[in-house]
Amino acid sequence: MIASKDNPFGQVISVSGMNLIIELNKDLLQRNLEQQFTNNGEILKMFVGIVGDIFLIGDLESNNVHYGIFEEVKLVSTFEEILNPINGMQEQSSNNDKNKAVAIAKIIGYQDKSSQSSLKFQRGIGHYPRFNSKCYLLTSNEKKSLFSLSEGQGLKIGNVAGLQSEEVAIHIDKFLGKHSVILGSTGSGKSSTVASILQKILKQYQYSHILFFDLHDEYSAAFQSEEFSNKVNKINASSFKLPYWLLNFEEFQSIFLGDIDNSKNSDGIRILKEQILELKENEHESIRGQVGLIEKISINSPIYFDIDKLLIELVKLNKRTYWKSDNELAWNEDGTDYIAGTGATKIDRPDKDKDQVIQDPSYYGKLNQVIEKIQSIRNDRRFTFLFTGKVTNSLFLKDYLLNLLSIPTSEEQHQLTILDLSKIPSEVTPIIIGVLSRICFEFKLWEDDSKTLPFYLVFEEAHNYIPKESTPNTKLPKKYIERIAKEGRKYGITQLIISQRPSDLSSTIISQCSNFFVLRVTNPEDQSFIRHVLPDHLSALTNMIPLFQNGEALIVGECVPLPIKGIIERPCPAPNSNDISFTEAWSKPLELYDITNTIYRWWDVKENE
What we know:
Elements: E1 10-16, E2 19-24, H1 26-30, E3 34-39, E4 42-47, E5 54-57, E6 66-77, E7 82-83, E8 90-91, E9 99-111, E10 121-123, E11 134-137, H2 140-146, E12 154-160, E13 163-171, H3 172-176, E14 180-183, H4 190-204, E15 210-214, E16 232-235, H5 249-257, H6 266-291, H7 307-317, E17 321-323, E18 346-349, E19 352-359, H8 368-379, H9 396-404, E20 416-420, H10 429-446, E21 455-459, H11 475-487, E22 493-499, H12 507-511, E23 515-518, H13 524-533, H14 539-542, E24 552-557, E25 564-568, H15 582-585, H16 595-603
């Protein structure tokens, strides 16, 4: 039984769908809605009508018990009618006193009929409360018992806003096993929320496998304490590598050829594909003794090829010529290059009559732009992450994936890999994130048992690469991440989407998310988007979002029994996301500032060894 069983605070006077109007007891007005009752000799004081608080409707001994959530409390008089929040109809007061108080509430669930001796929450409606049903407050312990999770299932992440005695816990399998999203304006505590949750996961689950895309090198600071020293594998921007040969051809074309005119360079692109495929087939022959026969090599197979050899071949083919009389290729004497075209002039031909050298119309000059684009990327220091000089065969793929997916190779077990992408050129960052997401998904796709290695992807600043409106740079990552959103769960790969501009996110991806953590959002368009994607009955809570304090979040979805407004615990240590203090910096003289160091970092000057 509940502590307030003999002290109902009111009764139901209107039921309309999920909406309730409750007439509060007259004596509560005299005590400013404070209710007192005794529980095991202890006097408890609780307030009726706190927005977001949970209460019980009906008698536990009956088969008609529900749970509601307060949305509003108001005073009415005999001359004032109560407006039903859904149908707009007027509900007349049933009390002839001058003033009375009513509570507007929503039904959020019902009591499991199989359990009459204890509280057991069931989502949904199931059946409706009866008219005049009594309503009762629940103590903190009763609410904790009502929504408690089995040992090992729950992860405490904070406390209920305004009720520090009540914990907020998420069902960890329903959080990690589903796609989730964390939304909040700049400065709302979004980064701290992400860091806090990940820190708790690493502490509780020591064999986790998480890949974090960190665009601004914010989060590594949150995992630099001794407690996380062996759990986190940070791949610095300076050491980050994504071998070019792991790109499929669409990705290769996006990075290396960029905005090249496909229609004017269709022959050049055709030749490029032919040469890459030939080099990959040659690589297969060189590793066949170690890995066995690969029956079919495609242009998209993650097999090594030497890009410098590719360029050499492309340069040759761009000057390809043949002898006019028999169409044989016109090689020079040592067979390393083609003889230049002679037009109508005939020249000596070994062991044959003089002949003309004709430029091959299918190859000659067709690769000018292709070669120029590839050479440009090859020589651009910003793209050095694509070229791993020590890698000379495809077997490197094994070590690359072991590192990326936090798969242990010895007794040391990393749980979280943070990719620092802060120095990657912004124009290719979306493509890089998309490529790595695809690689992770395809790895899970080909895995024997997807249950063995569940994998979690964390996308920071996601609106930059999975926007609502696609651009040439975001087309690929959006396609890949949307596929993970739609198919990833059945292969054991899920994702956490983090953004400060929810209205700019792909609607396809958001529609696949089962859990929402919404911090303070001030932009009207983003507020409208959030109200659109969250259930209508949360309007009382969603209207409060612009007023949330830092770290306060509305949590909705399968990972919590019911929507809840909580304060997320501060991470320790914190991420590197705090605002810079102008007042502190501008209140003291600038001494010994080394501008040379900044310029050298800008130039990427290497220290003398």
